[in-house]
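Hi Y.,

Following your request, here is the sequence exactly as I used it, all 469 residues.
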Amino acid sequence: MATEQDLAYLPLVEAARRIRDGEVTSRQLTEVALERAHRLEPQLNAFITLMDEAALADADAADRRRAAGGARPPLLGVPVALKDLYDTAGERTTAGARIYRDRVPARDSTVTARLRAAGAVIFGKNNMLEFAYGEVHPDYGPAHNPWNLAHSTGGSSSGTGAAVAAGIGQGNMGSDTGGSIRQPAAWCGIVGLKPTYGRVSRAGVVPLSWSLDHCGPMTRTVADCAAMLAAVAGCDPADPTAADRPVDDYVAALTGDLRGVRIARLADEARAATPETERATQAALAAMRAAGASVTELPWPDLDDGSVALMAILYAEASSFHEEWIRTRPGDYAEPTRARLEAGLRLPAIDYLRAQRVRAAVGRRYAELMTRFDLLVSPTGRGPAPRMGPPQDAPRTGGGDRLLGAIGWTGIFDLTGMPAVSVPSGFTADGLPLAVQIAGRPFAEGAVLRAAGVVEAAAGTLGRRPPLE
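Below is the corresponding structure, written out as tokens. Let me know if you'd prefer a different format.
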């Protein structure tokens, strides 16, 4: 008989199958998710809102629908949560900010609506950094890493990473502007996919930077990530940037066969990874070679210029969205967020335009690179999750913002809009997760996920659980 922990860590794809076959009910899984969320919340601080009553009602409706027979959507009855910047009709969406503390949208975001249409039960809204801009608002506090509560979860999808790793729900949706899906995924030992820009609608999602924001899934397995992406991807009239392209069968793409795949292993001599991270990355590359891929080592192209351009674009676009509040309600922001937004208001237009020209040039360089290679591979970050420290001082400006270092090896793929996934590659001797990043051509999420599945199978991380109980 399955234990509470077994049900909690049930992969999303398997949970959907068991509900469909009548082996478990949606109510059982939803009750487990809610019970764990309430019990572990004092340790993790992973949620801003839990939706007990509505979620249980939706779970009961899913069970009745299954019992009635007929067509069943792919995620029927599966409990999932959302980073708290996805609008949920009738439930508050705070974006981790005091300004939005009591905001209750009238309509669901497109992602929320598509998850509901796929049958998912939405049970909570995850804690996050304030407006996804790199800082913790003191009203909400930081999320804690389930693998070691003294360590960071990363940002800005911090609560999402913590909840998924802790077995609270079967899958969650995060967002990524400079690495905010992939860094928390790496530090929390889960899978996080930033799809191609335009692959997933951003309608009804609180923006940080219109031209850099991406929506994507965060799950415990690669197959679960593929299934969630299939449920939310596609064209959307409400988002003019959403691409009018067919949605692939991403789960079917997970064949484990990489024959003929050309991989560039991107190396950064100026910022070396830790020895444990490098060993895990080499093991991941060896697994991909064994699956048929060829690997060539190359230096990172345009990494520094691309990162600086991303920061200039981010500063300008974020401050544009916040312009009225930063003038009328500056005291409602965390101090570092306010300082960054004020700096963005002072950014000369010529700097923004110059950054866009750099972006175009970097995009051309990476497009040319992808004529020679199918995938780009690197560690997701230089090392495992660091220990949490005291609140940071206000960010320095003029290129000295600490976010510049935080985007590391992830931000370049937000700038270019290419799909990139972080997948667990092992653990440190101290039991902290390690991860590799795999990027591919625009709209080649299937190829990226296929390689991630090879790494996942070889790493031996599946089934390992944080020491919470």
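Residues 303-328 form the longest helix (26 residues).

Thanks again,
Q.
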